[in-house]
Amino acid sequence: MQTEAVSRPLASHRDWYGIALVVLSATGFSAKAIFIKLAFRWPVDAVTLLMLRMALALPFFLLAAWWSTRGATQAMTRRDWLAVIALGIAGYYLASLFDFLGLQYISASLERLILFLYPTLVVLIRALLGHRPSGREWGALALSYAGMALVVAGEGVGAQRELYWGVALVFLSSLSYAVYLVGSGAMIARLGATRFTALALLVSTTGVLLHYALANGVRWPQVAPPVWGLALAMALISTVLPTFLMSAGIRRLGAGRASLIASVGPVLTIAMGAVFLGESILPLQWLGAALVISGVLLVSLKKS
């Protein structure tokens, strides 16, 4: 009896600690679009800003790769390396590039909601590969995309071409990440999550650095000091720290509960967009956001 009395508060403390880790992680990820929009107030292009973010995070990627491979017993084959390169390009290079380009045209709030659609895209990709979605999944998809239509319809009526171009670019970002998730399952099972993710991040960083060099030449980027600070904030607060915080939170809560808590992300971005960028969202768009989040949760938590 005494053991049970002691174990309950310990379990509760572990849960609250896990919840705090996931919320902090979601906050960090949600702040990325805010940092990007703030940086765009200075004369800097998307490729240069993305390069600064990845270059500043590179030491941490290298450390994670070294840590995850130092005791690895599973040797990587040529096929493994090709898979890591392909998925690294899709999941982090292309997804990040499309995201940064899209944020030149749309609000941080809209960007976050579009990115949040990636679980629905995973369902659609798996359907193309022969995994038939359930009725609940089809309903969740209809709910999510109806909500997204409301959110987009509530955006400004002026520059419609730029709005749709930005939406398309960020949707491609979400699609690229969904492709990465579908393809990464087998590689994570083979190499381990940390090892595979670290190697994929190194591949993506190499791709970003090469892209910058081809576009701008091998030279030091000429940007204002605040852009360096915002890029460093993106590297640490919105890339490195939330990745490790989320992993720690999942270990304590499980993937299902962590996903449920992390769904606060779009709301956090909307709130931060209002505070730091002066963005506003109409009541109809709040309804659309609620539909998007509900649909994604129906897809994400179907096995919970």
From TrEMBL:
Presence of the UniProt keyword Oxidoreductase in the record: no
EamA domain segment(s): 17-152, 165-300
Main location: membrane
GO cellular component: plasma membrane
Keyword Lipid biosynthesis (UniProt): no
Record InterPro entries: Diverse_Substrate_Transporter, EamA_dom, EmrE-like
UniProt subcellular location: Cell membrane
Gene3D superfamilies: 1.10.3730.20
Topology versus the membrane: Multi-pass membrane protein
Membrane-spanning ranges: 16-40, 46-69, 81-106, 112-129, 138-157, 163-183, 195-215, 227-246, 258-278, 284-301
Keywords: Cell membrane, Membrane, Transmembrane, Transmembrane helix
Secretion signal span: none
Descriptive protein name: Threonine/homoserine efflux transporter RhtA
